[in-house]
């Protein structure tokens, strides 16, 4: 037989010697036919296909940018009780470095704590009086570097960069022949042992809540549509908002139960600290859950099959809520243009709240902005969900 | 010569429940056999065993000369199957469906091409060959599905309620196609809820609670139950004790 | 466009004489004309059938009547209320059973029933009287999951769920599809009982013989109404003399008959073949004799030719003309 390059060419059969050629031919053509069929199915399901093409693209973009573990914007608060040429020179070095931006300079460290609590500063640099003198004399000049370790990875990196700036200054003045000893002391606030679990627990709670609320609601509602029972529910006195509420409340309860369980596990097993108000955290969790529920309903209303609803929920909620929320990748390490987009991820706000309450022990006074944002999101999404949920089939 | 379908004491239990209770019958080549019964009588289970999808608890059967348990693969290769719920892929075109099933059953490209051409011409689907199956009216879908089931020239074909919801004229066209195949020697095993279609069969059987309660030509069955229509026979068998009344307005 | 057999004016707001009225309703989906200028009326306490094969537009029409879809043109009223403007009033009073046994398979019979009762603000107790004749048949299975019921049982459960809130009209979309003949017959017995209590019922079906169980029917095909009248009246308007022909070899009989020059239509009908003659003014006896003679010349044995009264299926096939082509012509 003539050899040809088509993969089911007769000659290839001899290469495989599995069973008789007749059978192999049949098996090959059957498999080939199936592959072709599946490709057609995939290409013709427009909704699913759009999501499947968007998904890898989105992941590549987000992971690509987010995976840069560089720190680009470290906000430093400087405490300089006795400014002298040395401290000013070092301060200028920090100011001139594109990675750092100085957010406050003060003679005492009184204002540092509130800055940390509010999340307005990532790091504090505290000079001791007589810094320049010690340098000149050749005795150790102490410098206190305080980092916010509620995000331990970031804190370590920031400390490393700060150390590099200091070392750069050191070598610059060392060139004049003086020996300098700058001794940076690191102190990590809020998470002295740099436990990653403390970082992750708030993020995990957000993840679990997104899963239960957005994903499950989307699937449940679209299943009702597919099964046809939704038709009967529509032809009844029930208004769309009543149907939505009835569908959604059980998942809210489930979500709440999961938050309690997760917190118990974190506290009992991992000894994650809990410095703030439990009530506030639970209330915030409920708020965040409701946002997820509204999203789930919206996705179910916009898609026409269970499969599309599930994929839509994954891409539209899970993905941004994990990648853009600061859960895994610090927002500080995201490129500048991406940061405004993170404002759209509800989890971003929730994680700030959760970390603030659990690790920093702050309350509504510091977190009111995030709470307001979540409430606004809830109102908008719920309104959109109810409106998109047609009282008719078309 | 062995029968096209041989069933001996075929039984299937699901836990305590006996869905099919030791049924026995023979079907000859070229017969059009109507397999009737109420919902839940065990029809679907019996058919699944015959086409090799479900293993019997006891008893055996052979279809097209192959044992359904030991040679399920061969059975499936030699039979055609078509059901009301699913037969063709709706989002593929007519041509694509034919090519797909031809490929699955191991036909060569040339065979597929030739048989497809003949099929299209016979069904007069020339204008619709590149239309998605979803756009065809139901009657056409079913006729096409039947032809596709016959594409690989099986000796036995199983039709599960093939004409549900089809308009009365197309239904009869469908049965013309069945007769045509039967004349060529294909054995046709069909289930239906239309009792007038039951009359079109050479022989019928009626299943009740897992057993075969009646079997024979339609005429024989009616005579045995002293009934004028198969409808009456059905009522007698499925609801013994109730008086069947002819409900014509 | 007036439809033969329809009588009475369409229902007016509030005090309509009809239970339901459809006036020139049309609905298109893309290129397909699902409903084309459909009009008919349902009288109070009437068992009204929509009879036609798949694709006739029955489901689309039901969805419009159940206020789930809006017609492109025309209007419809249910219990005197407009389907577009008064949708919430209609939804509170209609018992709707879409095709496909839309129930919750993982809930039990009783759980399904109590859910649908509560959706309408009532309970099984309050609705017990209304559903009694049907519920008695499925009560032994009340704790069984709906998914585990047989087709006939599911359909009875679905009917209960539609009835439990004591609606003023029932809309049942193909409740007997896919169900065996005996269960179908029982279901229609139940419907007759319900109708006797004064409840108007609109049912759709693809089984032609079920038309005779209705007071009046609308025959539909490809979105158009072929006829609206009592089934007997429709059948009696069959234009040709009709005969039932038997022979020993049915298949041979069919082939031979196709050669007969006077045939208007030849269709197998169960055990016999229905033959209608194209000639007019010829007596039934002579038609039968001619036919017997012809068959004898073709060596068809054991022949009997009997005149019969046409049925709804005969009338339907005559009215529908040729079956539709494979490629739907853009309407």
Describe this protein's structure:
The complex is a heterotrimer of chains A (394), B (249) and C (331). With 394 residues, chain A is an alpha/beta fold. Chain A contains 15 helices and five strands. Chain A has a five-stranded mixed sheet with strand order 2-1-3-4-5, sandwiched between helices. In chain B, strand 4 and strand 5 form a beta hairpin. The radius of gyration of chain B is 19 Å and the shape is globular. The termini of chain B are far apart. Chains in contact: A-B, A-C, B-C. At the B-C interface, helix 5, helix 6, helix 7 and helix 9 of B face helix 6, strand 12 and helix 10 of C.
Radius of gyration of chain A: 29 Å
What are the secondary-structure elements of chain A, in order, as H or E?
A: HHHEHEHEHEHEHHHHHHHH
CA-CA gap between termini of chain A: 59 Å
Structural class of chain B: alpha/beta
List the helices and strands and how they pair.
The complex is a heterotrimer of chains A (about 400), B (about 250) and C (about 325).
Chain A: H1 10-16, H2 21-44, H3 46-66, E1 74-79, H4 85-96, E2 100-106, H5 112-118, E3 123-127, H6 131-137, E4 141-148, H7 152-174, E5 182-189, H8 196-227, H9 229-234, H10 240-270, H11 278-302, H12 306-323, H13 339-342, H14 346-360, H15 364-388
Parallel strand pairs in A: 1-2, 1-3, 4-5
Antiparallel strand pairs in A: 3-4
Helix pairs in contact in A: 3-12, 4-7, 8-10, 8-11, 8-12, 8-14, 10-11, 11-12, 11-14, 11-15, 14-15
Chain B: E1 5-14, E2 17-27, E3 32-37, H1 43-50, E4 58-63, E5 66-67, H2 72-78, E6 79-83, H3 94-104, H4 109-123, H5 138-149, E7 156-160, H6 168-183, E8 187-191, H7 195-198, E9 203-208, E10 211-216, H8 218-224, H9 230-238
Helix pairs in contact in B: 3-4, 5-6
Chain C: E1 20-29, E2 32-42, E3 47-51, H1 58-65, E4 73-78, E5 81-82, H2 87-93, E6 94-97, H3 109-119, H4 124-138, H5 151-163, E7 169-172, H6 181-196, E8 201-205, E9 216-221, E10 224-229, H7 231-236, E11 242-246, H8 250-257, E12 263-269, E13 272-277, H9 284-297, E14 304-307, H10 312-320
């Amino acid at each position: 037989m003539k050899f040809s390059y088509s993969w089911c060419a007769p000659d290839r059969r001899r290469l495989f010697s599995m069973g008789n050629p007749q059978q192999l031919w049949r098996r090959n053509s059957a498999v080939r036919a199936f592959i072709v069929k599946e490709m057609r199915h995939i290409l013709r399901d427009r909704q699913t296909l759009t999501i499947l093409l968007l998904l890898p693209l989105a992941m590549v973009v987000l992971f690509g940018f987010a995976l840069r573990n560089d720190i680009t914007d470290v906000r430093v608060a400087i405490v300089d009780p006795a400014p002298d040429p040395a401290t000013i020179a070092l301060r200028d070095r920090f100011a001139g470095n594109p990675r750092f931006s100085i957010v406050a300079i003060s003679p005492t460290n009184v204002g540092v704590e509130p800055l940390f609590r509010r999340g307005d500063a990532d790091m504090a640099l505290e000079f001791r009086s007589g810094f320049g003198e010690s340098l000149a004399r050749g005795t150790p000049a102490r410098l206190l570097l305080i980092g916010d370790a509620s995000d331990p990875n970031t804190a370590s990196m920031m400390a490393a960069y700060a150390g590099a700036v200091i070392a750069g200054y050191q070598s610059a003045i060392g060139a004049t022949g003086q020996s300098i000893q700058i001794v940076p002391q690191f102190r990590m606030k809020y998470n002295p042992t740099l436990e990653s679990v403390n970082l992750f627990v708030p993020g995990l709670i957000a993840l679990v809540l997104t899963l239960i609320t957005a994903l499950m609601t989307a699937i449940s509602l679209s299943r009702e549509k597919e099964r046809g029972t939704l038709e009967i529910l529509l032809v009844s006195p029930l208004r769309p908002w009543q149907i939505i509420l009835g569908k959604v409340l059980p998942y809210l309860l489930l979500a709440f139960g999961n938050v309690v369980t997760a917190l118990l596990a974190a506290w009992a097993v991992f000894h994650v600290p809990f410095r703030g108000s439990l009530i506030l955290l639970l209330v915030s969790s409920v708020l965040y859950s409701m946002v997820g529920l509204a999203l789930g309903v919206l996705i179910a209303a916009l898609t026409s099959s269970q499969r599309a609803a599930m994929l839509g929920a994954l891409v539209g909620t899970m993905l941004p809520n994990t990648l853009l929320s600061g859960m895994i990748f610090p927002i500080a390490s995201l490129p500048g243009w991406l940061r405004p987009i993170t404002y759209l991820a509800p989890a971003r706000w929730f994680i700030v709240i959760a970390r603030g309450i659990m690790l920093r022990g702050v309350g509504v006074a510091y977190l009111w902005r995030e709470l307001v944002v979540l409430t606004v999101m809830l109102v908008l999404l719920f309104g959109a969900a109810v409106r998109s949920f047609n009282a008719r089939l078309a | 010569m062995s029968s096209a379908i041989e069933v001996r004491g075929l039984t299937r239990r699901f836990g305590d429940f006996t869905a099919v209770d030791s049924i026995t019958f023979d079907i000859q080549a070229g017969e059009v056999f109507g397999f009737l019964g109420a919902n839940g009588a065990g029809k679907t289970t019996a058919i699944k065993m015959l086409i090799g999808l479900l293993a019997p608890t006891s008893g055996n059967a052979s279809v097209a000369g192959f044992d359904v348990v030991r040679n399920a693969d061969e059975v499936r290769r030699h039979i055609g199957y078509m059901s009301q719920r699913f037969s063709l892929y709706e989002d593929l075109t007519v041509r694509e469906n034919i090519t797909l099933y031809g490929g699955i059953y191991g036909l060569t490209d040339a065979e597929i091409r030739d048989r497809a051409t003949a099929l299209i011409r016979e069904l007069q689907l020339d204008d619709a060959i590149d239309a998605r199956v979803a756009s065809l009216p139901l009657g056409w879908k079913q006729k096409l599905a039947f032809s596709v089931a016959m594409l690989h020239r099986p000796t036995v074909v199983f039709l599960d309620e093939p004409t549900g919801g089809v308009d009365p004229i197309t239904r009869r066209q469908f049965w013309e196609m069945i007769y045509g195949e039967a004349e060529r020697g294909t054995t046709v095993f069909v289930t239906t809820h239309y009792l007038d279609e039951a009359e079109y069969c050479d022989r019928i059987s009626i299943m009740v609670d897992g057993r075969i309660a009646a079997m024979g030509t339609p005429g024989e069955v009616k005579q045995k139950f002293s009934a004028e229509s198969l409808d009456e026979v059905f009522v007698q068998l499925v609801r013994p004790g109730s008086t069947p009344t002819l409900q014509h307005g | 466009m007036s439809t033969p057999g329809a009588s009475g004016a369409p229902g007016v707001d509030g005090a309509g004489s009809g239970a339901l009225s459809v006036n020139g309703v049309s609905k298109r989906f893309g290129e397909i004309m699902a409903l084309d200028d459909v009009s008919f009326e349902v009288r109070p306490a009437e068992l009204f059938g929509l009879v036609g094969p798949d694709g006739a537009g029955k489901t689309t029409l039901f969805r419009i009547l159940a206020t789930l879809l809006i017609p492109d043109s025309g209007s419809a009223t249910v219990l005197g209320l407009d389907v577009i403007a008064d949708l919430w009033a209609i939804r509170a009073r209609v018992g709707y059973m879409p095709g496909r046994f839309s129930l919750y398979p993982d809930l039990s019979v009783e759980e399904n029933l109590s859910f649908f009762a509560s959706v309408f603000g009532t309970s099984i107790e309050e609705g017990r009287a209304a559903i009694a004749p049907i519920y008695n048949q499925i009560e032994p299975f009340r704790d069984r999951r709906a998914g585990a019921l047989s087709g006939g049982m599911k359909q009875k459960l679905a009917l209960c769920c539609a009835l439990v809130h004591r609606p003023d009209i029932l809309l049942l979309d193909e409740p007997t599809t896919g169900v065996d003949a005996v269960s179908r017959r029982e279901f229609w017995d139940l419907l007759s009982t319900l109708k006797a209590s004064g409840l108007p019922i609109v049912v759709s079906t693809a089984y032609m013989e079920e038309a005779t169980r209705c007071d009046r029917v609308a025959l539909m095909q490809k979105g158009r109404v072929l006829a609206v009248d009592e089934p007997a009246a429709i059948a009696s308007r069959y234009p040709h003399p009709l005969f039932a022909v038997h022979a020993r070899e049915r298949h041979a009989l069919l082939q031979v008959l196709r050669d007969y020059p006077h045939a208007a239509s030849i269709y197998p009908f169960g055990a016999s073949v229905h033959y209608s003659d194209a000639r007019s003014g010829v007596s039934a006896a002579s038609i039968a004799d001619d036919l017997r003679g012809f068959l004898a010349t073709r060596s068809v044995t054991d022949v009997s030719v009997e005149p019969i009264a046409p049925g709804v299926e005969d009338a339907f096939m005559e009215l529908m003309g040729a079956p539709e082509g494979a490629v739907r012509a853009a309407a």
